[in-house]
Amino acid sequence: MARHRGGKGLFLSPKAIAVVLSVLAAVCLLVWGGLAMDGLYSKNKAAASSLIPAPAQAEEDSYISEGAYGAEPGTTYIKVVINGQSRFVFGMHFTDVKSVLQEGNITLQADDTVTPSLQTPVNENTVITIDNPNSQVVTQDSPIAYNVITKNDPSMQVGTEKVQTEGKNGVMQTTKLVRRTGSKVAFSNTIVSFVKTAPTNEVILVGTQPVAQASAGSSSSSSSSAQTQQSSGASSIGTTQAVGNPQKIAEQMLEEHGWGGEQFTCLVELWQKESGWSVTAENPSGAYGIPQALPGSKMGPGWQTSATVQISWGLEYIATRYGTPCGAWAHEVADNWY
After folding, report:
1. Are 176 and 190 in contact (CB under 8 A)?
2. Is position 331 within any domain?
3. pLDDT mean over 92-99
4. pLDDT at 199 exceeding the cut of 70
5. In terms of C-beta density within 10 A (0-12 exposed, 13-18 middle, 19 or more buried), how is residue 314 classed?
6. Between β-strands 127-131 and 170-181, what pairing exists: parallel, antiparallel or unpaired?
7. What pTM was computed for the model?
8. Are 276 and 172 in contact (CB under 8 A)?
């Protein structure tokens, strides 16, 4: 039996025991509650992330440090919240709030409230808030045209065609800050404009197999040969015709690079997914334009609206980093960025 100094044992009254148990229960409840809230935060954070089109979680994704979209070492980003809508602005030489808004092509109105002030120094922890009680946030969807891709199929006879995949337009979602005077729009500032749903390109198989001349005795070997040809022919990239002026510009530039029809098809699919071939595409991550440059200003004079400027920069970026548009498209399919 254990002995205690002074010969007295530890004694707690029933009332004291009840107090101790109550305290222990409260501590357990706090710990459990903290763990539960942490789990809820993680769950809600993941759910919120899934609602923002990739790549949008700029502070969490490693693709920026890997040079995606032409982001250079030292590229930083600032979060801007406009009437409750968030986006990121990327740049190399931010000094103050004003420099961030200039890089992000964000135009202020006289009655905008900007926090912190325009002259305030910034870092990656800065959050710039812009509020305007006289403007409203408007979100609208617009179609992204699909392309028709033609693929040769040696298992089908010459002169025959078959639709392998039905075409379907994609959806471009654009959120703007709009001010109206009566029924007229007096001011409009795009906050984000991104590919909500990429188009499904129509795929048409075109037969290239000559009409059968073989005897019945050789039909089995012909069938085997056709199956072998089909496995290689049906997996080809295929070719497509340009849809819209930006694609026509790109098609001509690809010829100057010495890239053929299949490379153009890869480029079409790549930039359909990234920007919908829109010169004003502005992902919440901060990437801009048809090739989604980070930041957009690195594309040079005319970067905000010129398809030629954007495509020229995008093709040089692809050639330097991936060699060909099909190389860039393969990376996009595997990693969801290029």
Report:
1. yes
2. no
3. 92
4. yes
5. buried
6. unpaired
7. 0.73
8. yes
